[in-house]
Design a protein that fits this description.
InterPro entries: F-box-assoc_dom_typ1, F-box-assoc_interact_dom, SCF_F-box_component
Distance between the termini: 17 Å
Helix content: under 10%
Order of helices and strands: EEEEEEEEEEEEEEEEEEEE
Organism: Centaurea solstitialis
Largest sheet: 5 strands, mixed
Low-confidence stretches: 2-15
Shape: globular
Number of strands: 20
Structural class: mainly beta
Strand content: over 45%
Radius of gyration: 19 Å
Strand order of the largest sheet: 6-5-4-3-7
Mean pLDDT: 76
Protein name: F-box associated beta-propeller type 1 domain-containing protein
Pfam family, one: FBA_1
């Protein structure tokens, strides 16, 4: 696995690098979803990568491991009872010391980077059918995007961890804006003018809810997505025990 980053000490100097983590110890002869999350512990300041997977022998059992940058090894956390086989999102947005995933229809699971434990998290009001679901971060708040045959809904959690603080930020009918019905739309970030930068299929899109317009461009391989970049002054070279590549 490779963790890539871009750091900068001023507006003119940019540094790119990657850390190669140890190869996973599991092997599968057929398709298996490997789900990742990345964040920093609020107590220790340690950067951690968490992943879940299914082992070769143990169908239906989802295991978890965590990697603390600088240690050079994965640690086993054991089985995760909350998760089923079909993960709906392959990366977990990091907010408030937790990584977040959709693990079932209308169910959210989090990983606490301090306690290194998984738990369920309050979800928005459920609907009967959601063909596409994803989580993101919008202006410092957790958000959830739901798509079905008729509309796109963006939910925003105004107060972290409070179930009744979920609020419908945007509801857009499909007659106005066309999007893939059976594929999730991933929010990258909210822009200053109130529009949203999103990815679906292999398109990078800007959606303006005021004018009800969408601009898109083909930029990605179908298997790629995108995340918002958040700068940090932490240097990769400070993790001396890791295999660091600067470019």
């Amino acid at each position: 696995m490779e963790v890539k980053t871009r750091s900068s000490t001023n507006k003119k100097l940019g540094m790119h690098g990657a850390i190669d983590l140890q190869e996973q110890r599991f092997r599968r002869e057929f398709y298996a979803a490997i789900v990742y999350g990345f964040g920093v512990s609020s107590l220790t300041g340690e950067y951690k990568v968490v992943r879940t997977f299914q082992e070769q022998h143990g169908l239906g059992v989802v295991q978890a491991e965590v990697y603390t940058l600088g240690t050079g090894r994965w640690r086993t956390l054991g089985p995760v009872g909350y998760w089923r086989n079909e993960i709906l999102q392959f990366y977990g947005p990091f907010l408030n010391n937790h990584c977040h995933w959709i693990v079932n229809d209308n169910q959210i699971c989090t990983f606490d980077l301090d306690k290194e434990t998984f738990q369920f998290f309050p979800s928005p009001p459920s609907v009967e059918v959601n063909h596409g679901q994803s989580l993101g971060i919008l202006k410092g708040c957790l958000c959830k995007l739901d798509t079905d045959y008729s509309e796109l809904t963006i939910w925003v959690m105004k107060e972290y961890g409070i179930k009744n603080s979920w609020h419908k930020q945007v509801v857009e009918k499909r007659q106005t804006i066309q999007w893939p019905v059976c594929e999730p739309i991933h929010l990258i970030t909210g822009l200053k003018d109130g529009s949203f930068l999103m990815v679906f299929e292999n398109k990078l899109c800007v959606f303006d809810p005021r004018s009800r317009t969408i601009e898109d461009t083909y930029m990605f391989d179908p298997d790629l997505s995108g995340l918002a970049y958040r700068p940090s002054f932490v240097k990769l070279q400070s993790f001396e025990s890791e295999r660091v590549h600067m470019f």
